[in-house]
Amino acid sequence: MRYFPPFVETISDVPEYLTGVHKLSESITRLTAVSKKEKITILLADDDLDDCEFFEEAMGELEQKTKLNCVHDGAELLAYLKKEKSLKPDIIFLDINMPSIDGLECLKEIRKEKSMNDIPVVMFTTSTNPEHVITAYEKGANLFWSKPESHDELMSMTKKIFSLNWDLHPPKNGKANFVVE
User: Fold this and answer.
1) Which has the closest alpha carbon to 175: 1, 2, 9?
2) What is the pLDDT tens value at each position of the chain, 181 positions in all?
């Protein structure tokens, strides 16, 4: 029997979930440990250089100061995290479809490491494949976010993500607010 997270009774329920049945709560606006920091260190793992540039431009426009580090494949991500332990990111944005090691396998490795297990991981991807959503949930992602199509959408969603109380979004916390829309 196939296991589904509590919010999905069958695989056919996932597309409905993705279309907005469960939206990110507008009421979650409390400042968090991440957003209280003077500067948030972000690690973006994405093989698409245009998407990295798009993300970097948006981070530069936020009121919240950020330091963005980019890696371009799964092997580079895991090597960075193991090598740069003193530069542990405050949050990881992780693409699924990357060369060498995909984002879902990277997520599994990140969650195995006690020193990295507390880092919020946002799956940041063009994929809306229901299996990817389920697998990301099962492997311990904090949020699943389909890449926005516009600069304004990216800015809006990034502000929401940085204002989240991450204590309310631990891995495998249930259905509420797993997919960011």
Assistant:
1) 9
2) 333 444 454 454 454 444 332 333 322 222 344 545 678 899 999 999 999 999 999 888 888 888 999 999 999 999 999 886 667 898 999 999 998 999 999 999 999 988 888 889 999 988 888 899 889 988 999 888 888 888 898 888 888 877 777 666 555 555 555 655 5
Give the C-alpha separation, 143 to 133, whole Å.
9
Q: Which domains does the chain have, with CATH numbers?
A: 13-180 (3.40.50.2300)
Residue 20, burial from CB neighbour count under 10 angstroms (0-12, 13-18, 19+)? exposed
Taking alpha carbons only, the member of 133, 123, 122, 121 closest to residue 96 is 123
